[in-house]
Amino acid sequence: MEAMKIDLLIHSASQVCVVPGHDGPQRGGRLGDLGIIENGAVAVADGRILETGPSADLRARYTAETTIDAHGRCLTPGFVDPHTHLPWAGDRAHEFEMRLGGATYMEIMAAGGGIMSTVYQTRAASLEQLVVQNLPRLARMLAHGTTSAEAKTGYGLEKAAELKQLDAIWQLNQRQPIELAATFLPAHAVPEEWSGRTDDYVQHIITELLPAGADWMRRRQTTLFCDVFCEAGVFDVAQTRRIFTRAAELGCRLKVHADEFEGLGGTKLAVELGAVSADHLVKTPDADIAALGQGNTVAVGLPGTPFGLGHSEYTPAKAILAAGGALALATDLNPGTTWCESMQMVMALACRYMGLTQAQALAAATLNSAHAIGRGDEIGSLEPGKQADILILDVADYRQLGYRYGTNLVKMVIKQGSVVSKQ
Amino acid sequence: MEAMKIDLLIHSASQVCVVPGHDGPQRGGRLGDLGIIENGAVAVADGRILETGPSADLRARYTAETTIDAHGRCLTPGFVDPHTHLPWAGDRAHEFEMRLGGATYMEIMAAGGGIMSTVYQTRAASLEQLVVQNLPRLARMLAHGTTSAEAKTGYGLEKAAELKQLDAIWQLNQRQPIELAATFLPAHAVPEEWSGRTDDYVQHIITELLPAGADWMRRRQTTLFCDVFCEAGVFDVAQTRRIFTRAAELGCRLKVHADEFEGLGGTKLAVELGAVSADHLVKTPDADIAALGQGNTVAVGLPGTPFGLGHSEYTPAKAILAAGGALALATDLNPGTTWCESMQMVMALACRYMGLTQAQALAAATLNSAHAIGRGDEIGSLEPGKQADILILDVADYRQLGYRYGTNLVKMVIKQGSVVSKQ
User: Fold this and answer.
1) B344 inside 8 A of chain A by CB
2) Does the beta-carbon distance from A358 to B94 stay under 8 Å?
3) What is the ipTM, given to two decimal places?
4) Dihedral sign (CA A210, A214, A220, A224)
5) Fold that domain A4-77+381-422 belongs to in CATH
6) What is the pLDDT of residues B393-402, one digit of tens each?
């Protein structure tokens, strides 16, 4: 039998972590099934996974344009980061310093800090400046193993700036290897111009901003998520429902920021409306956790956020899993609360503060996070037919992920069959 | 006036953080004085800092063999990591997984886990294996900006293996750029062979191991620290005093592991005996904090350790500073509680959990940590005459350190005037 010619064969890996999804995310007690093949190989053709299996077997059956010997290394799916606040302009290192120096929230606001600081910087940036400032952040994400991510608006909070953020996401998608799913979040905060008139701003979102976002989506012939920061003092559940109802009518899929500081019922609403994900989920009420077990909304834990703020309470992962929920992980990368591009760091936090094992954290950061951006059928695992988004780790055992932290264990990143980053 | 010819000129840096020490560490409220020169330059000759100053001034007065344009970048002293447990063999990722899976301490011990697991792996390794396994860890440290560090024994716990660890430190010193200060720690734990006979093991240390360590020190014509794990259930204060008294007679300088789980008085003892540093200091009693303010012993916070264990209590930095103490930071890099090579990550933890500002964390990780290994006159700042151990950061402002975390903000590492790492 003659060997079949393919594009890429990665062989002799100490472990190939397939992270099998079958027909959905790994829910509840199933989370952490890595489907490990020892001394394994991955065959790639046309940018997709053709087959995984024992190294000797695949080496006998395929010859490849490019062959990579992964002896002593572990292969995993590329990380999917389903919640970032890219793209933004500027930084808030000075505000962080003020906070550490003992400044109160009001003092920081008076000094021009807080979310509006990033809003003004993002509004002031040109589209090209916004793109150029965010390319190095994406390069860091890629070097640390993220091959697909979500990016969102929400630092514009006015029509032109929100659309500029969408255009920046579009351009960033073309100008580097990470695939970005776009989310529209004019309901990130009530901007100063609308201060004290939240209902009016909600109406403005519904009549002006959402149609503009939907128009952008149609022109770009892409998909668009709509997200709302459903939180005490920001948007309540009734306002969130109004925005989501209109967004769904306009063809958007839904995501929600819920329960970061108080449990208002945003998670239950998300499940009711069939949202793709509900994110943060620190103060989630029991009834909302139970709802996650019944519905198809993926719970996204963002442990970088409480860590970034020095808080001690994290997403109740064990309760969510006990209820049969699907749990994913994301960075929440943003300049205010947590500037960390690395999903490896997020996994290390999830092991220590959410009680996940390394295997659970890895499945949550790949297969389940792919489902959290509605792309679980395309990415997030090394199953045949999926995109060949593959990490070659600098270690032989996946259990080094989460155990070691603060550095980069990714040796090589492969996106759709091509090597796009090497350390 | 003709320009003077020198080896290296780094110019046009947005900030040069000198971290002036004058005649000692930055104590108490003085911690965080960075002596920043904006649009600055550093002149280097014969591997040492010749001068720092305004870029225009130094460019007019010097021509250099090698010139580096640091436009948009910040320069700092190389990080000094004064507490690691290098060199060791193997890892304990499986033990970490068991712990996350809910295994008790006793179950982990029964499965062959705990410190003795690393002791057996380290005893079984040949000298060359021990060296080769630890080179990549040092390479990661270097890439993240550590230019000098401490390394110690304590995974041998018997004469031959303790001396093998010292020889490994010696060889590691020759085979990569980071300078290592050696510490002798046969009093890291009571090995299984001496279980229940702690006093006998202490006597064995005094009569057999310390003389062997001192003999090694004389043969190598180097300095050697002696350290004791002074902790409830391990070595008490009286045993620690006996070991230290003999070590000092033999010419060793002193360091101590104290107050990690209980405050026994090890810190006060360290100050009394003029130890160079007292490390961990989580449960340090008030009287011991006051002693730090009076003596010359540097307090070394190791925030990676409580973080690694998922604990919530950290070194009381503010109380130590309020008492006028000198505070340094270190990784505690080890396979059991915290495997993180990055001093940047340690600074990020210190900002969030010890309440340090970024400037305080930077001074604690450079000048003060140099004093914590007795080398404050040679390294840890960019003052004239000191070794030219310099970091070029990928950011314009030092305040990005600590604020951003989980990635590597170091662009280039210069050791004794030579570029030794680039990202």
Assistant:
1) yes
2) no
3) 0.96
4) positive
5) Urease, subunit C; domain 1 (2.30.40)
6) 999 999 999 9
